[in-house]
Design goal:
- The chain is α+β, with helices and mostly antiparallel strands.
- The chain folds into three domains: 88 residues, Butyryl-Coa Dehydrogenase, subunit A, domain 1 (Orthogonal Bundle); 109 residues, Butyryl-CoA Dehydrogenase, subunit A, domain 2 (Beta Barrel); 149 residues, Butyryl-CoA Dehydrogenase, subunit A, domain 3 (Up-down Bundle).
- The chain contains eleven helices and twelve strands.
- Strands 3, 4, 5, 6, 7, 8, 9 and 10 form an eight-stranded mixed β-sheet that branches.
- The chain is globular, with a radius of gyration of 22 Å.
- The two termini are 22 Å apart.
- The relative contact order is 0.11.
- The mean pLDDT is 95.
- The structure holds flavin-adenine dinucleotide.
- The site of flavin-adenine dinucleotide has 20 residues, from β3, β5 and α11.
- This is Acyl-CoA dehydrogenase.
Length: 402
């Protein structure tokens, strides 16, 4: 049974979130603490307090930590509403990378680990990072991992260099992917937990990037004889790739949800502009060239929402949804980028200025085609699967046979 009805309470919550973002968060989009390296931590904390006051902080917290444990479908509605401003998810503590990290930590931490590394992130005190990508090493292909962890008594000693690590500067909780190389039968890519103030974590610099809505930007980091107790292994030694996939399927979908909100706002602004701006004797919306761009946007936004909701439904059925989330991520990231690009075109010259938030959304959304799997890598995975099990196009929906 396919059912697209959204319960009234969920719609009401989505509307409350959207109004909160409009009334309380959008004014901060011109705050000087929103720097070239993203919102700084002082701004983040101020926003977090606003969400806390409204009872909207960390809506995804699981019952294990006193939350409601919202479903993926519920997330779709709430995160889209939060994404109306790129700062909305920051305020509500459901932005990347923390949201995906909290999901993974919730699944894998022991109670002792959760106390130190997860609880402060859930309540908005700490930020967290996921450190995988390396210059010359792990990237699209994580098996190229270079960072190493060597066993020394009751500890592991980690050495390596990472880049593009979102939020590295000042983060309290670290999830580090490193290759265990010399621990008998226990070896291979492993996730480790570490505290941000450990002197073995050296922030080399924060990179200058075209986006500016990830808190504290993206860092280049060196692990210089970083010593972590063996008790800080997250899950099992050698299982990092499996855990990363566990994190990624939902995490890439929540990116899609938030960016859908941002792209929808761009469309809203472009539509209002097209109704009032005139050229050659009529509002520009009446020129088919402009009207068609806005119509193409409406089609794309609707199709993206359906792709997200379908994948959310698959995840809510308890399935891994790896293939579906790959398809949705590749589709949504490419389509939303085109939507925002067309919005700039509709706006004319002011579209490339900061007179409206569209240019900021455009710069910020570009990275989405790269992180959590670049489009080409998702297509590579999709074609490999099709080569193995055939195309879903050749199946009766619901059947497992080609
Ligand atoms: C804004 C942003 C935030 C990020 N935050 C984090 C973070 O917090 N933590 C972290 O660990 N990483 C982070 N990353 C890094 C991100 O995960 C990587 O950029 C991504 O995995 C791609 O790796 P790469 O940059 O090394 O590109 P490469 O792997 O070098 O890829 C380069 C190009 O080759 C293409 N390519 C690769 N393989 C194939 C293939 N099989 N077929 C066709 N084309 C292929 C890719 O699609 C891409 O176009 C972030 C990146 C960005 C842009």
């Amino acid at each position: 049974m396919i059912d697209f009805s959204i319960p009234q309470e969920l719609t009401a919550l989505g509307e409350r979130v959207r109004q909160f973002v409009i009334d309380e968060i959008i004014p901060y989009e011109r705050d000087p603490r929103l720097t070239q390296h993203g919102p700084n931590d002082e701004l983040r904390q101020e926003l977090v307090e606003l969400a806390r006051k409204q009872g909207l902080l960390t809506p995804q917290a699981s019952p294990r930590f006193g939350g409601k444990g919202i479903s993926h479908i519920e997330q779709s509605v709430i995160y889209e509403a939060a994404g109306w401003s790129t700062l909305g998810p920051v305020a509500m503590n459901c932005a990347a990378p923390d949201e995906g990290n909290m999901f993974l930590l919730d699944k894998l931490t022991t109670d002792e680990q959760a106390e130190v590394f997860l609880k402060p992130v859930l309540d908005g005190r700490f930020r967290s990072v996921f450190a995988m990508t390396e210059p010359g090493g792990a990237g699209s292909d994580p098996s190229q991992l270079l960072t190493e962890a060597r066993r020394d008594g009751d500890s592991y000693v980690i050495n390596g260099r990472k880049w593009l690590i979102t939020g590295a500067n000042g983060a309290g909780t670290w999830i580090i992917m490193a290759n265990v190389v010399d621990d008998g039968n226990r070896s291979g890519p492993t996730l480790f937990l570490a505290k941000g103030d450990d002197p073995g974590i050296v922030i080399e610099r924060v990179m200058n990037s075209m986006d500016r809505n990830y808190v504290e930007g993206h860092g280049v980091v060196v692990f210089d004889d970083l010593r972590v107790p063996a008790a800080n292994v997250l899950g099992e030694v050698g299982e990092a790739m499996r855990y990363a996939q566990m994190r990624l399927a939902p995490a890439r979908l929540t990116h899609a949800m938030r960016w859908l909100g941002a792209a929808s706002r761009a469309q809203h602004i472009a539509l209002e502009h097209a109704k009032t701006r005139t050229a050659f004797g009529s509002p520009i919306i009446d020129h088919q060239g402009v009207g068609f761009m806005l119509a193409d946007n409406e089609i794309a936004l609707t199709q993206c929402r359906l792709a997200i909701w379908y994948t959310a439904w698959v995840l809510d059925q308890g399935q891994k949804g790896r293939h579906e989330s790959s398809i949705s991520k590749a589709f949504v990231s490419e389509e939303l980028f085109k939507v925002v690009d067309r919005c700039i075109q509709v706006m004319g010259g002011i579209g490339v200025t900061d007179e409206t938030p569209i240019e900021m959304i455009f710069r910020d959304i570009r990275g989405f085609r790269l992180y959590d799997g670049p489009t080409e890598v998702h297509k590579y995975a999709i074609i490999r699967r099709m080569n193995h099990v055939g195309s879903t196009a050749a199946r009766v929906p619901g059947s497992d046979t080609v």
